[in-house]
Amino acid sequence: MSMIVQMSSKSKIYHRPGCQYLNRIKEGYLTLVELQKKTAGKLFPCKCCCKLSKMYRDYEPAMKKILEEVDGLAKLEENQIKIQAKNYCWEIRFDPAKQHFRLYKKIWDETIGRTNLIQCSGYDGKEETGQLEKIIALLVGKERTASYPEAYRKAAWNIERQAKEHHMSIEYDGDILYVLTDMAAWKIVFFDRKQCYKLFHCPFGGKKMTMEQAKKARYHRQVDAGENSHPAKYLKYIAGHDRAKKIMEQDYHLLPQRSNKEKMYYNQARKREARKSTRRVWNLFAELEAQQEGFQKLSFC
Fold first, then answer.
1. pTM above 0.70, yes or no
2. Record's superkingdom (predicted)?
């Protein structure tokens, strides 16, 4: 990930935005440069604004407040910042030549009997370059999600946001995420072998379940939801499914028919309603026959 820096067209020294020495460069000579691997070797960082100690000093008050959320304490050492937080010990290493940050997490490795440094990347798979604020935000985000099962950590924020938006109750149990709505119980299951998620459904039988009851309930696979690599997408599916069920309870004719899938659901609802109507007619005939037999028995008596 490249970074935009500022410099004089007559110099090979680049500055970060806001550097005090930028005021000494005449407006006509001030230019923007994208700092990449090719250009980094030919240019030189400013000894004032491009030093980690300067960035740390400027950002330290805000960083302390942000790290309070994860019980984090920071310490500057040479070209690295060591942070002890609630769940992990972290190291932020800085390369002055490339103006590049790397985030590392300390993990105890039982096979070698000592702690091991694991490099962490952003959620987009790219390394963070340029701003200390971004790398601290990445660290705090990983600390927040450390308590979630590993299979759901990257999607945890999105899952919580959607659950709150659609008034769902959620609870993790290992590789299973249970979801309760006012219509049904659901569970999202992570399959490690295939590295995918599948959705399972258990409708309420007229009585709403508690989370403990939902964990013991019998589910069926929601085949039309398919396999998914992003579990948060299932919450959107669940919300749409419940919304359609509520419409069907009133009148299936109100169901939308914009897409092919919506048309398929509409036809399924129409056929289901037709089967219900047929059953009602047969039940009515059965009642009439039972009444007629009763009248005949009375007449013989």
1. no
2. Bacteria
Region 231-260 average pLDDT: 76
> What is the overall mean pLDDT for the chain?
84
What's the rounded Cα separation, in Å, for the pair 196 and 259? 26
How many other CB atoms sit within 10 Å of the CB of residue 26?
A: 9
Q: Give the span between the Cα atoms of 160 and 209, in whole angstroms.
A: 20
The token pair that represents 168 in the structure block: 């769902």
Find, among 202, 174, 210, 169, the residue nearest to 186 by Cα. Answer: 202
List Cα–Cα distances, 288 to 228, 239, 277, 292, in angstroms: 51, 42, 17, 6
Asked which of 153-157, 162-166, 213-217 is least confident by mean pLDDT, the reply is 153-157
DSSP for the chain? Answer: --EEEEEETT-SEEE-TT-GGGGGS-GGGEEEEEE-HHHHTTSEE-TTTTSHHHHHHHHHHHHHHHHHTTT-EEEEETTEEEEE-SS-EEEEEEETTTTEEEEEEEEEETTTTEEEEEEE--TTS---BS-HHHHHHHHHHHHHGGGS-GGGTTTHHHHHHHHHHTT-EEEEETTEEEEE-SSEEEEEEEETTTTEEEEEEEE-SSSPPPHHHHHHS--EE-GGG--BS-THHHHHHHHHHHHHHHHHHH-GGGS--SSHHHHHHHHHHHHHHHHHHHHHHHHHHHHHHHHHHHHHHHHH-
Question: How many other CB atoms are found less than 10 A from the CB of residue 177?
Answer: 28
Provide φ and ψ at 65, rounded to 5°.
-65, -40
* pLDDT of res. 100: 85
In Å, what is the CA distance from 63 to each residue of 69, 134, 197? 11, 11, 37
